[in-house]
Amino acid sequence: MAGKIYKRKKRGAGRFVQLPEWVQASEAWATLAPGPRALYIELKRRFNGTNNGAIYLSHRDAAAALNAHRNTVGPWFRELEARGFIYMTQGPHLGPSGIGRASVWGLAEEATPDGRPARKTFMQFKNPRTISVHGRHINEDD
Hints:
This protein has 142 residues and is of the alpha+beta class.
C-alpha cells in the first residue's frame, strides 16, 4: 500500500480565530448582541499576532465581510469601543493623494507589538441592571 490517501495533500489545518474562554465569560461579551460579536470576530480574524494597533478595517469592508449594510456596522464599531473590546489608534482620513484611509483598530485583549500589556478594558464593563415595573425601567440602585 502506497500510503493513506486522505493525508497526501494535508499541510495543516489553516488559520483560525481563537476566542479565549475568559473573554466569552466576561459580562461585556455575554450581553453583546450578535452583530457586534460578528464584527469583533472579523477584526480578530485580521489580527495576525503582531499587528495589534494596526488592524485596518473600514465600515465598507466590514459590511462586505459580514454581509450587512455599511450604515449598520457603524453602531457595531461604537458598541465594541464603548464596551472596551476595541480601540481606535488612528481615525479615518484622506491620504496624501486624496484617497481615503480606513480606521486603524487595536484589540484590547491582546498586547501591543511594542511590549505594552493588554488593556482588557472590557473586563471593567458593568451592565446597568434594570428591572421592569409596570412597563417602566427602574434602576436597582435607586
